[in-house]
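User: Fold this one for me? It's PP2C family protein-serine/threonine phosphatase.
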Amino acid sequence: MTQEPGSWLGAAESALRAAPPTSLPAAAGALLADYVDARAVTLLLADYGLSVLQPVTRLPRTGETVPARGDHPAGRAFSAQAPVVEVAGEPGMVTTHLPITVRGDRLGVLSVHLPEATAGAPRVLELAAFATAFGHELLAAERDTDLYLQARRRKRLTLAAEMQWQLLPGRGFAREEYTLGAHLEPAYAIGGDNFDWSTTDDHLTVTVCDGRGQGIQAALLTNLTVSALRNARRAGISLPDQACLADQAVYGEYGGAKYSSTLLLRFDLATGQVSAVDAGSPQLFRLRNHIVERVELEAQLPLGMFEETEYREQTLHIEPGDRLIIASSGVHSALSAEGKLFGEIALRETIAATHATPPHEAARAVVDGLIQYHGSHDLPHDAAVVCLDWRGRRLSESRPLM
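Assistant: Here's what I get for PP2C family protein-serine/threonine phosphatase.
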């Protein structure tokens, strides 16, 4: 029996929290059968390459995949981040595809097959809220079971890729002032490239690491670099000192034989001022008023190349409506199958073409452009792209000066 709109969501969230980690899909199906007379509920998770959505059936196996982009209704819901109602073949029934997104991190889609009479606009909004609550519980469940991580895989990850994905904060994040989206390739064999971010009430810190080498050795280097940067950041020290401490950690382990090219950015959410330390090869581009420019930063030594390197920060300013793209060397220095450099011009053209797409799709589109240029999905080097859309803080949100 269905219940009145708005009367069941709180109880449903409590029931999801009480469900065992491996039973979330079954719990969602039972709840929605009770609350909205759902006849079937399917959980589709985005794979590591964000190319397909994999229906979770008898875990860890999955059902037939559907494209994460294109004409499939579930793919449209995922890429557009909006519910899509599909008219079913069965008279009087529809399937509502609901994006599962947690604070800007896109996880997949919840597809609910239910009577058309119970799928009006108010109910769809409630179902969308249910999908978000389900996503929060899904992330919590991943701490205690491998089932959902297994269900995302089209094939086995390399050990280096396993380490890298466990190190990442997610693939997206959003709040009032900005939206972040990021993409990594080759998703199932990534080695040294990595991105990280952290937010406070007043600042956002973003780092992109371009670890030297390939495979497990590159993953170990990047793991040390990211952990050292996090340790320094959580100590509350300045951006240049974060770079200095991470530099010492990497040099202390490798003695200059290995190093990590890293870009560090710290955004003031109230003013749009950005502090930057350019310690290597990741490049920064800005899209403003449909014009793409490379942001020239003071090039400094990669982390760990020499002992006790001193780092300096510089500042720049971004405006509401700006889009920033950070690309690792595997993107801006990539070669085609004929040995021609991808280069800044091609990269700028690719970034410009993404101006109307959300950050998640923009980051992915840049890597897709690189894959097309290379002529194969088997990229010879890791490619990492982070896209940030800046809205800034409204004056009413600004904190008074103390």
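One thing worth pointing out: The radius of gyration is 22 Å.
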